[in-house]
Amino acid sequence: MAKSAVYALLYVFFTVLETNIFNDLKIFGIKPNLVIGLCVAASVFENERYAAGLGFVCGFITDSVFDSPFLFSGLYYFFAAYISGTCARLYFTKTVLTMLILTAPVLALRGIFNLFFLAGSWQEFEIITALREYLLPEYIYAFIFAPFVYFLVKLTAARINYSNV
Fold this sequence. Notes:
The chain is mainly alpha-helical.
């Protein structure tokens, strides 16, 4: 229960950071996606089932609060956290390098889904414009902030053991 409360507070912190502070620090009009970093960081430190549940809840709340296709983020974060957690448990150690290795394909796949969304919602869709103005800046920005998310999760939620609760 305490660990879930800490993750909930981290989710609120990253959401506030994204929506308020990073409004002034946009690169090409894009803010970093810190919530996806939270889900991948949880998949590195926790088991894949816990991370998948956290990803679903975070994505569901994100879709409910913001103007995004309903339930897409919840399902995407669920599968991304589950697969990342499985890979982290089987093949990697709990390091920031693991987080970066797992974050790269998660963000790339998210970019592909966003590309399809933009193609379906824009009247005059241009792939070069979408890549240059939306997808690549979001990918780079989220990837740059992934270590920050990792260390914040490591300092807070990852320190809580289930045996201590």
